[in-house]
Amino acid sequence: MRIGSFTRRGLITGALATPCILRPLAARAQEPVDIELVLAVDVSRSVDEQEQELQFKGYAAAFRDPRLIEGIAGGPLGQIAVTLFTWSDWHIQELLVPWTRIDGAASAEGLAQALDAAPRRTWLYTSISGAMDYAAGLFGQGYEGTRKVVDISGDGISNSGRPVADARADALAKGIVMNGLAVIDRSPQPWAAGMPPLDDYYRDEVIGGPGAFLMVAEGFEAFETAVKRKIIREIASAPPPGPLVERAYA
């Protein structure tokens, strides 16, 4: 009889305890930063080996620039969070630098070294919508920025995946700002016949959100100058009004 009573008491106790066991753990607090910045780099077939190297060196040089470090230090919190991935076809995105807190020269140099050592791979098509969708899913992973910005660089219009307008609308609805860095190749390209000028396309179809802007690199040789100016403007805590479209030359 006592065994039965003990069993019933055990079942009752277990039943009462079960909800505690199933209660989800508290969500990990997000670290506040001035901006969550996603860098999305085009590695489709139109970007040859030399041009891809100019892109990687340009991003690395930007994070070694003292002006960028000063810009970060000037923010209310004095720190930002950055992640970088490459993109091509609608289903091909490769995360090369996971979310990294940048709060000074040492952490910025660490990110630059990660870019120096990152693999260089080339794929086929150009899916800006795929890059937007992937980038939008990266936010909220350990950091909470007062601003959420995606920086998409590329040298061609989208030719893979869903409509860019749909992907951009979904990102803007989440409070994400879409900025662009269009790399212009002024030499004639047979495959570009009938396509809109790339700078017009990025301005009209890619960028969007409060304060969004487009940086145009006049050739890959101008990429380093363009990306430095672009990121410095993006991380400014109170960016002054600037032109919708800026241009950088080698």
Automatic annotation (TrEMBL):
Pfam family membership, one = DUF1194
Q: Cross-referenced InterPro entries, in alphabetical order? A: DUF1194
Which branch of life, at top level?
Bacteria
The name on file for this protein is DUF1194 domain-containing protein
Q: What organism is this sequence from?
A: Falsiroseomonas tokyonensis
